[in-house]
Amino acid sequence: MSGSRHADPPTSIGKIGRRAFTAIGLAGGAAMLTAGAPTGQPPGGEPTPAGEDRKTHITMLLYPGTTVLDWIGPYEVLHRVPGVEFVLTAATTDLMTSDSGLVDYKANIPLDRIERTDVLIVPGGAQGVMGAAEDPVIADWLRRIDRTTIYTVGVCTGSLILAHIGLLRGRRATTYWKFPSMLEGAGATFVPQRWVRDGKYWTSAGVSAGIDISLALTADLYGAKRAMTTQLAIEYDPRPPFDAGSVRTAPPDVVDALGGIMPPHSHR
């Protein structure tokens, strides 16, 4: 398996507006009201061949205001996979605070020390998504690192960051259920699935779907048995007491309690 190389995508069209990112923050607040270990070293060398013996460098982008499960879920899946070398990176290694305001976290490697990675994962958040998407240091780094990846992954509203900088233009993708029009406004085609793959770009639906996409990614890299072994290791056997985890199955009054799906005109 080899990583594909892409020219920088256009950045002057199809961006997501500031009002839209503000809406993400408000929606995140509404949801809260109702609601291998890291190596310490940057990835290096060239991608290794596919198969059970391959080494896979996985880099998770962090920024202030992430939704913790967006990246902790994938981390818990992927760091357990033999062959994976997992790092957390950010523009700073200072402490950052989650979108809930309750959890502090930090990266172990700054962005400027990472020149390539096999897999890049971008988690979502509420208010923090706008800041990350419009930070030129983060945006330039994402475009540069994307040219080196085998896979680039957006979890929840992390896919909106990828879309905002042009990486999902013309591609099928998904995101948190409230924001399909934002994804399409940035030039992607929204697909209402738990996770979507289009070429080397993988995107997931909201929050907990990051676990599902990480298991699928593990199976693609190392085979179904290793993915199932990891699934059992974290005892991922969800049996929610209600069938309300999707906008397609939740009662209308539950959808309305979270503000419903954002209409297209609200983020122009």
What order do the helices and strands come in, and which of them pair?
Elements: H1 18-33, E1 56-61, H2 68-78, E2 84-90, E3 96-97, E4 104-105, E5 109-110, E6 119-122, H3 128-133, H4 136-146, E7 151-154, H5 158-164, E8 172-173, H6 180-185, E9 189-190, E10 195-198, E11 201-204, H7 209-222, H8 224-233, H9 252-257
Parallel strand pairs: 1-2, 1-6, 2-5, 6-7, 7-11, 8-9
Antiparallel strand pairs: 3-4, 10-11
Helix pairs in contact: 2-7, 7-8
Ends apart, CA distance between termini = 40 Å
Helix content: 25-40%
Structural class: alpha/beta
Q: Which outline best applies?
A: globular
Strand content: 5-15%
Spans of at least 5 consecutive residues whose pLDDT stays below 50 are: 1-7, 9-13, 30-38
On the 0 to 100 scale, the average pLDDT is 88
- Give the biggest sheet: 7 strands, mixed
Counted beta strands: 11
How many helices in DSSP terms? 9
Widest beta sheet: strand line-up: 5-2-1-6-7-11-10
Spell the H/E element sequence.
Answer: HEHEEEEEHHEHEHEEEHHH
Radius of gyration: 17 Å
